[in-house]
Recover the amino acids of this structure.
């Protein structure tokens, strides 16, 4: 069985002056699909052994690596976690630069702007290696 996390999410605190790592955390994101499970198996077809792979996606409630407790620091500026995630997603994934809207809102905007409507149906998420 091959068990592969689809994506990691992490945070770290680095001392600006020395570059020393003060705190580190790496974890699976908490969402409905965060792992890819592949099971290799063999089957006999026409007298020959043929290798196959059965694949599925799943969810693990918690998997993380942490260096300890985060330090209590005073920040000159701190981004909200959702704002930081969006900024990184947009920097690494071009699809995140698009306006993804619920269907009803997309139809209204397309009519208002007199532009075609592009639909994408996904099973999973785009920024997950398992998809």
């Amino acid at each position: 069985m091959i068990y592969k996390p689809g994506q990691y999410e992490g945070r770290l605190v680095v001392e600006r002056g020395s570059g020393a790592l003060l705190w580190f955390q790496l974890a699976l994101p908490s969402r409905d699909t965060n792992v890819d499970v592949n099971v290799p198996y063999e089957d006999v077809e026409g007298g020959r052994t043929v290798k196959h792979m059965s694949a599925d996606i799943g969810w693990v409630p918690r998997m993380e690596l942490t260096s300890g407790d985060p330090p209590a620091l005073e920040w000159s500026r701190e981004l909200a976690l959702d704002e930081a995630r969006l900024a990184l997603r947009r920097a690494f994934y071009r699809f995140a630069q698009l306006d993804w809207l619920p269907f009803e809102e997309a139809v209204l905007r397309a009519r208002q702007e007199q532009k075609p409507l592009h639909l994408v149906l996904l099973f999973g998420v785009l920024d997950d290696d398992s998809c």
In short: The chain has one domain: 2-113. The two ends are 18 Å apart (CA to CA).
